[in-house]
Input
Amino acid sequence: MILYYNMTINELQDNIIDEFSMFDDWMDKYSLLIDLGNSLHPLEDKDKKPQNIIEGCQSRVWLNAEMKDGLVVYRGESDALLVKGIVSLLIKVLTNHTPDEIIGTELYFIEKIGLREHLSPTRSNGLLAMIKQMKLFALAFKARG
Amino acid sequence: MNNQELQKIRADFPILQEKIYNKDLIYFDNGATTQKPRCVVEKIEEGYYYTNANIHRGVHFLSQKATEAHEAARSTVAEFIHAAKREEIVFTRGTTEAINLVASSFGYAFCKSGDEIIISVMEHHSNIVPWQMLCERKGLKLRVIPMNELGELDLDAYKLLLNQHTRLVSVAHVSNVLGTINPVKEIIEIAHKQNIPVLVDGAQAVPHIAVDVTELDADFYVFSAHKIYGPTGIGVLYGKEKLLNAMPPYQGGGEMISIVTFEKTTYNELPFKFEAGTPDYIGSTALAEALHYVQGIGIEKIAAHEHELLTYGTKRLMEIEGMRIIGTSKAKSSVISFLVGNIHPYDLGMLLDKLGIAVRTGHHCAQPLIDSLGMPGTVRASFAFYNSKEEIDTFITSLKRIVIMLS
Output
């Protein structure tokens, strides 16, 4: 089990890349993604407010963020399991970091682990919009100081 | 269709020999668009290489030749759907543009505030939004025919919707989500008793079943070339001559005029009145080629083979635990929408793709229908005559494997 505390965003990304690189077969990669999706703590109904929905053409993503001790904490969910798996990875990478760290981050791990297709704008699964929204939350927290 | 015939047909479609992620492509997304036989693509190439000249205006040899090919294509389309006159065939960019043309032009001529347009709950967005736009523009009301749990339109409810305010009924011949073949002949008969014209969206019908607009007595019938093995970007509006003549042009420009002065312009006759600008004369000849190809095999033979695929596919899908087929009308074309347990359609579609199988997932551009069913969407497998039972077997094996992964 990898400990995620006190790691930089890029260290966390590299960790995920390592974890996925153990599998050559796409089936195993997707099985891991499904496991991640299943283990993502579900959002409470009260957090599934309409204003937290990022509507995609194919699937929905809910995203919430709050500040705790100067760090942004994200929570999210999706109605599609594979998308939920990616949501859990994004949360793992970006949560518990300062707004500045989040704003300045380039998320390269998705491409490296071979899941770039989920981010294609034509997939319309709400993920691309979710990444944008995660950064917007960070920007808003920063502006609020 | 025996195996030998099927293999011969499949050889006409180079894409069916392709591999996706190192697996044989299984293309079950024919409801979205169909693949093209070699002869259609060759027709496009031939047109651009050897007969390209702007039509209807040049005095020179090539222009004449291109004009003849384009007008012969119009005749082919007219014959294919059994239109009484070739002038009743208007080339458009597709089904969507054809419906927009009628909504705009028929709406301008015949609709006023307080009037009503009837559509059905199973319409594609392209047979909803143009009417909503007309409603907003002129203060009309949109009425919707409901359906039963099998996915069949409720004709009793339909009869009750018709009244003296109804200006037009616009319904799909075949539902792109449910596969239901709607009783359009009956729908038209009922409307005609009150002198109300009917538009039939034939996008999902023309490739799969024999269509005779004269026998149906349809007032408008529309479809797209790309769904019947032809090129993208061209489609057809059939309209009864009397109606088309009474409607103003949809767009202005070249081709659609008779005499232009700065004071006044008089319009050309049918069908040119509705074909502003240089038409897609390469596309029209390629569409005609596609229709000849379909005629070569025979629409009855196509329908029989696809029905076999539908029956076999349905039976095999039902082997899977938690399988729910959406749309179980008795009259059904080769479209199967389904869900398995609580698995999201996106997850199924993504993993099927990884196994080389192309299906459609989501709301299929029929959001109101999907919402009314209370679903996040469906997975849709839609078959064409080049698909086989062996492909269905592979699809089922793959699906079973995926369901285990996702459960």
